[in-house]
Amino acid sequence: MRAWLIETLGRLLNVGETDTAFGRALLEERYRALQKQIPLLYLVALANFVGLTVASGAPLAEATDPAHLLVLFVVARLAYWHRARRIVLTPDKIIVELRKTLVLAALLSLAFGYWSMRLLLLGPASQQDLVILFTSLAALGCAYGLASFPTAARMPLLLLGLPLAFVLAGSPKLAHMGVGMSLGLVIFLILRLLNVQTASFTELIRSRSRIEQERERAQRAERTALTEKARVRQVADSDPLTGVANRRALLSALGDRVSDRSSRGLALAIIDLDGFKPVNDTFGHAAGDAVLIEVAARLKREAPEALVARIGGDEFAVIRSEDTELGAFALGERVCRALGRPYRIAGREYRISASCGVSLVEPGTSSAAIALGRSDAALYSAKQKGRGCVALFTPQLEAANRRRTLIESSLREPKVLDQFSLVFQPIFDLDSGAIRAFEALARWEHPTLGQIAPSEFIPITEQINVIEQITEAMLARAAAEASRWPAPILLSFNLSAVQLHSAASARRLLRIAARQGLKPARLQIEVTETALLADFDTARLNLDQLRKAGVRIVLDDFGAGFASISYLREMDFDAIKLDGSLLTEATCSDGALRLLKGVIDLTASLGVPCIAEHIETEEQLRLLRRLGCRDGQGFILSEPGEARLAKEMAESRVDRIPSTLTSHRSRTAA
Q1: pLDDT score, position 113
Q2: What is the percent of the chain where pLDDT is above 90?
Q3: Structure confidence at residue 664 as a pLDDT band (50, 70, 90)
Q4: At residue 575, does pLDDT exceed 80?
Q5: How far apart are CA 173 and CA 169, in angstroms?
Q6: What pLDDT sits at residue 14?
Q7: CB-based contacts of 344: which residues, under 8 Å, 6+ apart?
Q8: pLDDT(363) > 90
Q9: Helix, strand, or coil here: 525?
Q10: Share of the chain above pLDDT 70, in %
């Protein structure tokens, strides 16, 4: 019984919930309605209390009368709600206020009912009609005032009006009996109306809450979209490491400025760090990144009003309004001085310098590409002078710039691929002399410029985004040739950084090889440390896809340094190609020799064969064999040749390394 009472009391006092948006909205809407209605409710109650007091025949000023205390309480509550009509409460406090209202509605209904029943049953007969009138009006009026809070609205009907209806319905007087029955029916109808109104009110609030939720969701989605758009724009225009603008943002800003004839002249400075690679390779990416961040900070301090951008690995650019060549040159000098100061990071001091090429751009007289070309030409001139130098673009540099411009325009021509050809340089097993693979090398014969070296045209193809189409065309040609070689011999093909970081490049390369009839197992892809550096995650994803398909992956230009070792730890390679400088210096220096031996021993400990390149002397060949290097290539072994010669060499089963170079091997074997 006690548990039932507690459960029933809990249900009665359950006036709402704050766990959902709808529950909170329903509470707030009910409370707002009560703030408007309850003052009227207390006025109705007060009028009927006073009327009932008069009907009882007791004077109003009689302080000992309980009715007087009831009237005073109603007046106090009326004043309270009058003050609270504009107060905004939290949902939790609204629940407290509604519970208080429910309890007071029940207590006032019981008190008024008890008082009116006493007057009706014990009072003078002449006052009975007034008692019935005021009691009925109080019950119905209070229920109306609490209509937005149905649980409380039922209290005056059930505790005040319904007992009166029962008493009157059992009266011997026919008039009172009729009034009682009518009052009971009215109470029944009002209770039904309360249920209908409650359902409609709840559904209205639920619909409004859903609309509000949808509106808030739409607003959140819009804010999220705007935030994401701004973030994407910032990410797209910012260098993720240094926080300054990237190449894309630089080109956009430069294009806007040079096309605006009303703007002032511009100084465009391109800065290349001297000596950064040794820092990055020797002390690792963390040290290199810290240096780059400090470089960007110094540039912003030296030119706070300028646009600073990182446009390459260790290449930066600055755009600043400037009218004179003297001012543009002074900007370059100031930048170089600032970047030439020592860098102290994590207790270690690094010393690098910067070369700077500056051009003065007159708005409306050139394009962004021309401006960049001029500054690049000036930078090239500065680097020829030595470390830490500045060069201003002058007419004397125009020839070099015209050459670059001609190369760029030629690379954009639809039939430029007809000017490209391939040569193949064999990679030998240094012990047996057998050919393991042919490395495909692109050659470009320009109609007017003649032979253009890969070291000159490949960086330009990457900068103007034509490297992928050239690479894929060359791979198709090379794969077609390699498909005619004997099966054990591989095609070794170099992959550029741009191709390596293109999301779908692995699938495209595999499709190209398949169309030419070359199985993935006969394709060997060479990638450099620098190519891996820019976007390691995308590069690893592409290389993993190639490797799973059966393609061999070779790490090219492998040198000394933590950067290379970190790649060996994080990725699987099928072979490692040694940087040519390791071999060149090993024949001149004991320290370089120890370094070469250490690198070859490292690859052996990893179970990965190593390939030496740029083998140009018998001494170098003998050294590599003695140190255990398995494969090699170089001019002394075989120069690059045309496809016809490569096919002939591939089909020949004889030892392809000249016999004069194999004598050491033969003596060793003997």
Answers
A1: 82
A2: 31
A3: very low
A4: yes
A5: 9
A6: 66
A7: 350
A8: no
A9: strand
A10: 89
3-state percent helix, strand, coil for the chain, nearest multiple of 5: 65, 15, 25
Range 471-477, long-range pairs (CB < 8 A, 24+ positions)? 471/495, 471/496, 471/499, 472/508, 472/509, 472/512, 473/417, 473/420, 474/420, 474/422, 474/440, 474/442, 475/440, 475/509, 475/512, 475/513, 476/512, 476/515, 476/516, 477/422
Residue whose structure tokens are 């293109």: 502
End-to-end CA distance of the chain: 109
For residues 519 and 482, the answer to whether their CB atoms sit within 8 Å is no
Interacting residues of 364 by C-beta distance below 8 A, sequence separation 6+: 258, 259, 260, 261
Look at residue 258 and tell me whether its pLDDT is greater than 80: no
Tokens 């860098």 correspond to what residue? 343
Most confident of 203-207, 263-267, 342-346: 342-346
Radius of gyration of the chain (CA): 46
What local confidence, expressed as pLDDT, does residue 580 receive?
86
- DSSP for residue 549: T
What element of type H or E holds 453?
Answer: none
**How far is it, in rounded angstroms, from Cα 43 to Cα 421?**
102
Distance CA(33)–CA(26), nearest Å, equals: 11
